[in-house]
Automatic annotation (TrEMBL):
This is Isopropylmalate dehydrogenase-like domain-containing protein. Residues 7-345 form the Isopropylmalate dehydrogenase-like domain. InterPro entries: IsoPropMal-DH-like_dom. It holds the Pfam family Iso_dh. Belongs to the isocitrate and isopropylmalate dehydrogenases family. It comes from Zasmidium cellare ATCC 36951. It comes from the Eukaryota. Coiled coil: none annotated.
Length: 353
């Protein structure tokens, strides 16, 4: 009898989303895991079906499966807020569609592991950090308003004890699971003493329960400098929403491309796996998008779903592929199309099994 399928929801996204989803499914399928992919409509497709970019039916479908591969979604500046209608008819308002997915599913931490690779990461090939970005609060709650006639605007930065403790706890547990050595809190508590100050205190409260780790904290501006000058200085990083967003893109740039930076959004019931990058509308439809960040997000999914052997096989295949420097997409300095890169990766994974 064959194994029960690993059921995965798929959000195809837009921009380069459908291209990198196709590639990711092909590479993950080459592990011979028995997958069942369930496509869930979002954005334009959900509007067509349900009249809304993230309808209650969509949220309900996503909640039915533990794992979801999510491609990026375009959010244009000034597009306005995303409103989610709840089953009881009430409405929740979020600053963007991506934010709405995370908050509707109760995803509380965005894990962004960023590793350098021989062949494409230059001086940063030894970089290996995992950023735990809190994703339920901070300035991204989207509570902002204008004052007067274009005279000023203000936004609320929310930090709660419960969310700060939760992300710190997740960071330390991740460090235990992944056999890491150091956990660093990145913040700006010298200026934002109330909000980041609370975040930092919560971090040290949790840290006290994990005496086996080296523990410290660094201001976000210094952290940006230090990761460039001394990349090995960081291991696991725990940080509020906005700093995590920016710091992880910086780290991705150091290792060679946003196309190498995966991510996982975690809650107790549902996890979505998505690249750190956006929908790259500038290259959408050209067939040159680098799918590796989404494939590496799929590797995180395999690890969380206890397919360790297959996750290692894909990870090794990617490392070997990058080392050979063949079939690289333009963002990595090559001229290959997404499909050519995908075919080479499928071959590589098969040879690892
Ligand atoms: P972006 O990450 O989409 O693109 C930044 C640059 O990196 C572009 O030059 C792009 O071509 C390149 N790039 C990104 N991913 C790539 C890949 N896989 N392969 C090759 N090149 C790649 O950032 P942006 O331009 O600021 O945002 C574009 C859209 O994506 C916006 O609407 C934004 O709101 C949205 N976005 C979505 C998410 C998400 O869904 N989680 C995250 C960030 C941005």
């Amino acid at each position: 009898m064959s194994d029960p399928p690993l059921i995965v929801s798929v959000l195809k996204g837009n921009g380069i989303g459908p291209e990198i989803i196709k590639s990711t499914i092909a590479v993950l399928e080459s592990t011979c895991i028995n997958f069942e992919w369930r496509e869930v409509p979002i954005a334009e497709e959900s509007i067509k079906l349900y009249g809304h970019p993230i309808a209650p039916e969509v949220v309900a479908q996503l909640r039915q499966t533990k794992h979801c591969i999510k491609a990026p979604l375009i959010v244009k500046p000034g597009q306005g807020k995303t409103v989610c209608v709840q089953p009881d008819g009430s409405q929740s308002t979020y600053p963007s569609l991506n934010n709405a997915v995370r908050r509707e599913l109760g995803l509380f931490v965005n894990v962004r592991p960023i590793r350098g690779y021989t062949g494409v990461s230059g001086a940063y090939e030894d970089l290996d950090i995992a950023i735990m970005r809190e994703v339920t609060e901070d300035v991204y709650i989207g509570h902002e308003h204008g004052i007067g006639n274009d005279l000023a605007a203000e936004a609320i930065k929310l930090t709660t004890r419960s969310a700060s403790l939760r992300v710190a706890k997740y960071g330390f547990e991740y460090a235990v699971r992944m056999k890491r050595e150091r956990v660093t809190c990145v913040h700006k508590a010298n200026v934002l003493g109330m909000t980041d100050g609370l975040f930092l205190r919560c971090f040290y409260e949790v840290a006290a329960q994990y005496p086996q780790f080296k523990v410290d904290d660094v201001m976000i501006d210094a952290a940006c400098y230090l990761i460039v000058k001394d990349p090995k200085r960081f291991d696991v990083v725990v940080t509020p929403n906005q700093y995590g967003d920016i710091f992880s893109d910086l780290a991705a740039g150091l290792v060679g491309s946003l196309g190498l930076a995966p991510g996982a959004n975690i809650s107790d019931d549902v996890c979505t796996y998505e690249a750190s990058h956006g929908a790259a509308p500038d290259i959408a439809g050209l067939g040159i998008a680098n799918p590796l960040a989404l494939i590496l997000s799929g590797v995180e999914m395999l690890r969380n779903a206890a397919y360790q052997k297959q996750a290692d096989a894909v990870q090794r295949a990617i490392a070997e592929f990058l080392q050979k420097k063949q079939y690289l997409t333009p963002d990595l300095g090559g001229i290959a199309k997404t499909e050519e890169m995908t075919a080479a990766l499928v071959q590589g994974v098969r040879s690892q099994l």
